Amino acid sequence: MHASAVMGCFCRVAGVAQQFSRMSNQKRLPLRMEIRYLPTITRKRENPPLYNYLAGKALGDLNKDGISDSVVVVQDTTDNTRPSRLQIFFGQADGSYTPVVTANTVIEPTYPLGSDGMDEGHRFDEVLIKNGALDIHTSLIHANVHHVFRYQNGHFELIGFSQDQLEDINTVSEEQYNLSTGQYIRYKEAPDGSGKSVVENRVIPAGALPVLDNFVPFTSKGEITY
User: Fold this and answer.
1) What's the number of CA atoms in the CB half-sphere (13 Å) around residue 205?
2) Residue 8's pLDDT band (boundaries 50, 70, 90)?
């Protein structure tokens, strides 16, 4: 994702390793970046979500059986928070599909406070299947976020996280975290992509990898602090 695609920033980078350490009961990792998660307020509804709008779809082999699988993202446009649901279906030799995952929290609602409240800039962009992995691309007001999952150990595990955002009018910050290896890299560059430099490069063990079924995105609206 080219850094010039993002403008301005009101997001705060997630302390991803801290979230992993809480999941795996490991010692807290000393990241300089931390996030203050804000409570998500949603409006209650009497009827179950309709998920009446197809927001995205991808086809490709996710479980390495040589048969194309299907990923769909549906949205409920009748709910003023606009919640989304991601579903994965494994393709069968006879041409049918078997549902294997339904994830209701991996994509944040478009309007967490309701469509009549403040627009916090949550957007679902697309789902992609690349090299057998599922890439979920979302965005905040001035940031692009990717969560990458791979089918292994009987479920979809998070193996990659990346985010780019504008710190100020002259500086773009980009993070890449490979959870499989623990390699974490943060870059800074100009909005036009020039002058790219590494400002942090280290190994941060991820511990037990989060699974897609009940995963909640690492990013949340806030302020950047380093």
Assistant:
1) 10
2) very low
